[in-house]
Amino acid sequence: MKKKNDKIIKFHRQIHINIGVIIFGVILIYVIFHVFSFLTSKNITVYEVNEGTIAENQEYQALAIRQEQIVTAPVAGDIFYFTPDISRAGVRTRICSIDTTGEITDELTAGASDVVDTEALDLSRVSSSIGTFSGEYTDMDFQKVYAFKNSLTAEIQQLSSEYLLQQLADQVATASSAGTFHMLYAQTPGLVVYQTDGYESVTADNFTEEDLDPSQVTVTDLKGQESVTEGQAVYKLVTSDHWELIAEIDEETASKYEDGEYVEIRFPEDQSTTWAQCQIQQKEDRYYLILSMHDSMDRYASSRFIHIEILSDSETGLKIPNSAITEKEFFTIPRDYYETEDYYYVDPQDLPRGTTLQKPDSQDSYLVGSETATLQGVYNVNKGYAVFKQIDILSQTEEYTIVASGTSYGIALYDHIVLQGDEVEENDMIY
Question: Is pLDDT above 90 for 72?
């Protein structure tokens, strides 16, 4: 019997590499790494730097000072007003009447509530006013339309009152002769105002600190009174277009103004603007800004305190949120160890603390880290990691800051910076 050949040759099993599995594994590791990095990293927001402008306007509740005369009743009786509130009066303009018996006033009051036939009125003045306004009107004057409407209403009201008085001419003549009916006329030209507040005698020379407190104002409505006593105020006449606004300011603000210079102011109530001449007045340890004007008085004649804005020069540059601004400490090294001037600011990562510098052509040396200083800046993340960039602040509000562009070691337009400046450090990776 033949013997079987027991020699068996064994072949090693070949390992088959599955490329798909490898690629899947790499992708899985990549995804896990980034998910982990995202979950453990800080929630950082990136902001793109843009150009912007900030105007440093100062706002005040200013005390209005005018040349005002209070006219009082010569006798007691019922009162009737002919001239509308906040309207111009010339010499001998009929302002109001006082009736000691009340008979004529009752008829005037009853007639004023009736509808007057406009054909009975002389509307030539009204037509003339409308023609003048229409000829001079532009779209830029739209805010004046409402003022013009009020002016027309007042003019028609005055014409109506005059018409009623003509209808009662005989009764008025009889009562005037008997001394029971008194007509009050303006003795000087001015603006008629039917309210008082106790500030009529305050001037830019005699005002006090308490006068600038709006809570101290108590307004009395004169036109709401139906009867008056002898010596009681019946109307107020503002006799000049010159008026002043007074606001308390701090010493630093006072140093920015010079007596006699002009500033532009805006009235937020209607967004109108005008120019005023400045004067700084110091009383004890307080400073006051006095603004003198010759226009716009009519619009605010019924207000003792007026909200104003002083329009300052605006700053233009790179606009960044205040939250992006942070500080970083640097070593300071005297420049004469390099060049001239004062100091170099050196990042501690670039030059370790304790490094000794030898001054050129001298035996003097300087130990790095012995003096430090802090600079303001932001973290630039254009390359994916945080790099501190110094900023030069031009202007600032509660939310934004304007910084100079084109500065050495600074930021540029469209740079990307960290919005939360205090939450990152130099070289932090930003995902």
Answer: yes
